[in-house]
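Data card: per-record layout.
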Amino acid sequence: MRRFLLITVAVALLAALASCTPEGVGDPCEPESCPPLYNDLGEVVPGECGWETTEVYLEHFSLQCRTRVCMVFRAGDLWEPYCTRRCGPGAAIKGCGAKYKCTEVVTGTTIGAGCYCVHEEQLNLEIGSADMDKINACK
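The structure for this 139-residue chain is written out next.
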């Protein structure tokens, strides 16, 4: 009976851990620096960021994030910066958990190039889309 109870508890713990989003992914963060926002006269607007909707910004070594990476991904009115981490080939943890997809966000040989966890609502998940190609690049 005792062995059955231990096995039941172990299975329950494993199931709970498998369903969790990796620690820290999706937590809110605020980058330490950002590109300036300019008004119609070409003047810098103090205290405002000039994120572009096509831009991806990764701030490594962010002390606000347990993952140590703060990301602005295709900034818009609905999306705030959030903590992310590397995923996919070569990463310590391959997957991203519920509601996040492992996506290639920086290509080439630049510092930080690779795959990161991105909220699925920020991606075009239609077959054949550029985002799906970037997801497949991380498998």
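Known properties of this structure: The beta strands are 36-38, 44-49, 56-60, 69-73, 82-84, 100-106, 114-119. The chain has two helices and seven strands.

See the next section for split statistics.
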